[in-house]
Specification:
This protein is of the alpha+beta class and about 475 residues long. It is built from 21 helices and twelve strands. The chain is about 50% helix and about 10% strand. The chain is globular, with a radius of gyration of 23 Å. The N and C termini lie far apart (about 50 Å). The structure holds protoporphyrin IX containing FE. The site of protoporphyrin IX containing FE has 23 residues, from helix 14, helix 15 and helix 20.
Amino acid sequence: MSSPANSSGMLSGPPVSRWLGFFPEFKTDSLGYLLRCREYGDVAKLPMGTLAAWLLREHDPAMYLLNNPADVRHVLVVNQDNYTKAPIPPVEARVFGRGVLHTEGALHHRQRRIFLPYFHGDHVSSYAGLITDMTVEVTDSWQDGTTIDIGHAMTQITLSVIWRLLFGQDIGTDARTVTEAITTGQHLIKLQYDSVFARLMPLWIPTRLHREFSGGHRRLESIIRRLIRARRSAPTQSQDVLSLLLAATDPEGKPLSEDEIRDELVTFLLAGHETTANALTWVWCLLAQSPAVRARLGQELHAVLNGRLPTNADVPHLRYTKMIWEETLRLYPPAWLLHTRVSRADDTLPSGAHLPSGARVFISPWSLHRNPQWFPDADRFDPERFSPEAVVHRPAFSYLPFGGGGRRCLGESFAELEGILIMATVASKIHLELADEQPVLPDPLMTLRPRHPMQMTVSRIDAHHPSSA
Ligand code: HEM
């Protein structure tokens, strides 16, 4: 990797607008911009401009983009206590409340301790049957030769799964209300990230988006609070997240309040289904573009499953399926940019770069994953990069779709189980082809999704070769 500093010993970055800093170029093409910044060495400095300096009353406010895995490890793991998450826009704060994704310090530790045992080992694998059932329920209705919106279909499956994980019951007719509320919320949150004016505009100003958001938010709140109250008044033996939260206590031994439980449930609902749905959507796109990989996947599924549904016991044998999942998360990491970190005190990174106190740090799985130094011919889809022999030659933190350190994704094992089982269930029965020739472009919203709904044509293997199904 190149040096962190230019010849004058200063960190450098691409030229920026004097008044608006790096924002205009970043807003226009965030993904391309992050890749271009790699030219400036281990750490690229991205000044925020004079306007931000006035508003923030800081001398030289800047974002620092880390391109070196050792620096990333330092910030996320080695010296993680020196870094907090940056403040979030008002709408995001209102939606997530004080759920585990957005808290810090002792409270965050306590929250993670509640969830860690739940998201490990046998407990996660006990959901295998549910995941395949939900997948079959959605895909059984796909007729041979028809065209489907694959992103929508993957969201249907992962939303049904997360709802059962959280509440132990089917989402049923609430699915539409929940999806609409989430979509509107995401648009408004994204707008508030992109525009200081949108961030400052109070919600009571009745713009169309504000009205839609407030309505959707109210409806989602009422569904979730109704479920919490119903379970409180009639407890069940259910092993879901709601039961876990109702049984949890704070350090004084007091049960969690309804607001605390609501915040965690909404956090898991939002963090835990769209990410996985987007990853799976990219899986189908990449497979459709790579017939050789698709054929090899078919061979593995035939050898391991021979037409039956996958179970948890099959997962360790679906090695190539897992490599496809990992390679997809490399090329299209749903969390394309981690939450901005802010340094509490000055820090010197392993690359030698110096970060001042209050530095805002960008860590982008998208740009790290496309670095040709660790991933030669980085834009090419090649699951072999995740063979055990290939993985050992790469440094830690050159690949981090689930983040790292004390804030590493809590749902990683669950997401992986879902990814592998949904891929195996669908791909052993169905071939999916892209319905049009247009290039599929990624759109970096809250998660990395395709810019336009991805239409795919269904070809049922079981209809053409009944014996192989
Ligand atoms: C492919 C799917 C997924 C991806 C790529 C993903 C990615 C991530 C990443 C990168 C972070 C860390 C963010 C940061 O440090 O700024 C994170 C945090 C988190 N994820 Fe996931 N996630 C996925 C699925 C899930 C699922 C299925 C769940 C729950 C069932 C979940 C729950 C969480 C939670 C609660 C956190 C916050 C952890 C903390 O701050 O302590 N995620 N996820």
